[in-house]
Amino acid sequence: MTKISSIEGRILYNSRGSKTIEVDVESEGKFLGRVCAPSGASVGKYEAVSFPNGKPEESLRILQENSQKFIGLESSDLKGIHDVLKSLDSSTDYSRIGGALAFAVTIASMESASKAAEQPLFKTLSPEFSFKFPFPLGNILGGGAHAGPGTPDIQEILICATGSKTIEDAIETNLAVHKELRNVLENEDSDFTNGRGDEGGWAPKLENQKALEVSAKACENLGFTLGKEVSLGVDFAASTQWNEEKQKYVYDRAGFENSTGEQIDFAANIIEKYKLIFAEDAVHEEAFEDMAELTAKFPNILVTGDDLTVTNKDILIKAIDSKSCNASILKVNQAGSLYDALEFANIANQNNIKLITSHRSGESTDSQISHIGIATKSKMLKVGVVGGERIAKLNELLRLSEHDLIRGMAEI
Ligand code: PEP
Ligand code: MG
Description:
- The chain is of the alpha/beta class.
- It has 2 domains: 115 residues, Enolase-like, N-terminal domain (Enolase-like, domain 1), CATH 3.30.390; 279 residues, TIM Barrel (Alpha-Beta Barrel).
- It is built from 13 helices and 16 strands.
- An 8-stranded mixed β-barrel has the order 5-6-7-11-12-13-14-15, surrounded by 5 helices. A 3-stranded antiparallel beta sheet has the order 1-2-3.
- β2 and β3 form a beta hairpin.
- The chain is globular and about 60 Å long.
- Bound molecules: phosphoenolpyruvate and magnesium ion.
């Protein structure tokens, strides 16, 4: 047992070049946990607010004024640390102190505790003695809120090496598909600049269907059969298209509109045609019944909520009651503190909701989420394929492959 001896913060930048907060928690004057908070671009309506009034400096000031409240707590006492944060912010969305501060303080404390206990973070977060690797799920082609005009309206086309037996092979396969997709795109368009979106997926000037076709072609060129060695996934991020006034999904870039029924058919056709393993936010964030329709129709694929469930346990319970999804994204900073996120994960695991631990589009080069994915029994880890801040998470999985406690890949 080690007590927190100091807690400090600073302002740094995330991968999008936006200001964020980093927190150092030290126990016994020597065990350092250091965490830099990420942030999203396609943000769910009901997720934790990153910073009070959008100002990371405000979160830093609050940490500095209240640092004494953390000193002397056990660094492993996640609930105690969470309770101090809640005593500073009684709102439901961390709008007073910032969810980014809650994220950084709680994960840094647990990292400090894991160093003191001389065990990896995933083991500190879970009482289990045997763990599995989540399948890396990576963005190979991006559009929507993560890339500029001319790119697809659909936010992300993702690759997952569903046939891989090892984490090494799964990562290598994703990388090979990402590389081959560049060749396919260069053949399609000699003016393709190799531009990439916020998460490292290629960002070509292509409409949705063509973007899916080239992604499938890259897999086939490598001799892979979709649904076998590799599978595609899509994050529709449909709240981006949803127009409340028109009550329609408006595809500005492709130039069409979908009624609710048409959107369900649009998503269902893509799921079937490309044998998707994963479909995220295929309808907007408040369309619980429409999501339930897709979940009933596709019991064997991960019909996943992200903006729908926002790592919020009350919203997850609503989604479970209405059978709106069979899988959910887990983004700690959507919840706020790691304590909130682990509560969410427990409820998901108890109710057969498959977890996909995820990065944000604006990331840090930290890799604690790789441990969080393992500890929460996540089936997939959605962390991109390339880019320093994405590779950091994948490289951490490779380091962890040296660990005896993790054996084999998760069962999807
Ligand atoms: C997502 O929508 O799943 C995502 C990772 O993007 P962002 O971080 O912008 O929400
Ligand atoms: Mg999403």
